[in-house]
Amino acid sequence: MFSSTLSALRRQATQRNVNKALSSWFSSSRNTYATEATFETKPFRLHKLDEGPSTSATVNKEDAIRMYREMQIIRRMETAAGNLYKEKIIRGFCHLSSGQEACAVGMKAAMRPQDAIITAYRAHGWTYLMGVDVLGVMSELTGRHSGCARGKGGSMHMYSHNFYGGNGIVGAQIPLGAGIAFAAKYLGTGGVCLALYGDGAANQGQVFEVDGMDVLAVRQATEFAINHCTSGKGPIVMEAFTYRYSGHSMSDPGTSYRTREEVQEVRQTRDPITSFRERIVSSGMATPDELKKLEQEIRREVDEATKRSKQDAEIGMDELTADVYSNPLEDKIRGIAPWEQLPHKRLGPAVNLK
Ligand SMILES: Cc1ncc(C[n+]2csc(CCOP(=O)(O)OP(=O)(O)O)c2C)c(N)n1
Ligand SMILES: [Mg+2]
What confidence tens digit (pLDDT) does each residue in 168-212 have? Predict the structure, then answer.
């Protein structure tokens, strides 16, 4: 795991900017709108549970706009990543998650500061949600030094505090997630660990099903799951039905096993962002004009970070063997041959130890 004080400072600064932008956005809006609204989710399907999450979800205006903004940022970052890949500026693997924003944003909205998360290789959105700014994600993708792993991790290996990546081996994150949860138990932090995996890695267990295209249903279910775990009832499996617009990775157009019409229909009828937008507007929490302004700001922010991630420098060769271990017992690391010893630098404490 890699870290730098710089990225932590940048993260704080970005959060401050986001708070500032949101507060100016709120004060500039005419305050004649609803400050909160309640929506019905689809029923949750339960398995081996006497009681499930409530299907009535109340969201206040500030949380609604924040979640909307987060989903839009992730959508735009994924679009930018797809373009950079086609320009051959992102190399190696690149797995996008457009269409699945409600799963990540809804879960994050229910997580508490002491909770941790680990996922597979489809990790760009989570990296942003767990505190890395847009530039930190985009420059990691382009392999440059402003990346959250200084360009050494790339698309599949991004980390931040309480975010254990980005794992390339299908299913590997599940036992690791159990280990992170045990660590929380032994250390008495009161935190839980969310270990995410796809249908391709699924197994069985205590399950309930969630509409993964509804950000409020995901938030509601995650709150329920966290309460379940922290009240001593043990681990829980939660299944979210979701739909990804992109294929498996950039080498898969995603149209050989489904039709373009099917993808188009989901976009038009079940898109997590469009449907949440409608809820925000119909409940009077914001006007279409206000959301448009927010969307323009998001577009500018992601475009700017994308531009910088292309211009950014790569790290020097001397950094190639930096931060391999968090606690290096030897100051040299073996190169490609045993007689080629490279220095092991330490740039700072690992992100999960800060
Ligand atoms: C142990 C292992 N087997 C096979 C692969 C190749 N592989 C990469 S992604 C993938 C599909 C996994 O699908 P799913 O868990 O549903 O996740 P999704 O890509 O849909 O998010 C496979 C088989 C791998 N990375 N690791
Ligand atoms: Mg899958």
Answer: 998 889 999 999 999 999 999 999 999 999 988 876 444 567 999
Which pLDDT score is estimated for 4?
38
Do 325 and 207 reside in the same domain of the chain?
no
Q: Reduced to 3 states, what is the DSSP secondary structure of residue 72? A: helix
**Is the CB of 156 inside a 6 Å radius of any atom of ligand 1?**
no
- Smallest CA separation from ligand 1 atom 5, residue: 170
Task: Say if residue 229 is in the same domain as residue 332.
Answer: no
Mean pLDDT throughout 85-100?
96
Q: Is the predicted pLDDT of residue 135 greater than 60, yes or no?
A: yes
Measured from the alpha carbon of residue 252, the closest ligand is 1
Same domain (yes/no): 329, 248 = no
Is residue 165 a part of any domain in this protein? Answer: yes
**What is the atom index within ligand 1 of the atom nearest the CA of 248?**
19
Of 53, 60, 69, 79, the residue nearest 19 (C-alpha): 69
**DSSP for 162-204, written as a single string:** TB-----STTTHHHHHHHHHHHHHHHT----EEE---GGG---
User: Could you tell me the distance, in angstroms and rounded to a whole number, from the CA of residue 313 to the centre of ligand 2?
Assistant: 35
CATH of the domain at 115: 3.40.50.970
Q: Are residues 243 and 339 in the same domain?
A: no
> CA–CA distance from 223 to each of 57, 194, 229, 290 (Å)?
11, 12, 10, 29
Residue 331, domain member (yes or no): yes
Same domain for 168 and 70: yes
Range in 11-15, 161-165, 247-251 the model is least confident about: 11-15
Residue 68 and residue 212: Cα distance in Å, rounded?
A: 15
Mark whether 162 and 309 lie in a shared domain. yes
- The pLDDT of residue 205 is 43
Are 282 and 340 members of one domain?
A: no
Between strands 237-241 and 207-211, the pairing is parallel
Specify if 305 maps to a domain. Answer: yes
Q: What is the pLDDT of residues 292-342, one digit of tens each?
A: 999 999 999 999 999 999 999 999 988 989 988 888 888 898 889 999 999
Mutation probe of ligand 1 site: the residue of 96, 103, 170, 176 with most atoms within 8 A of C-beta: 170
Print the domain residue range for 93.
10-315
Compute the distance from residue 190 Cα to the ligand 2 centre, in Å: 31
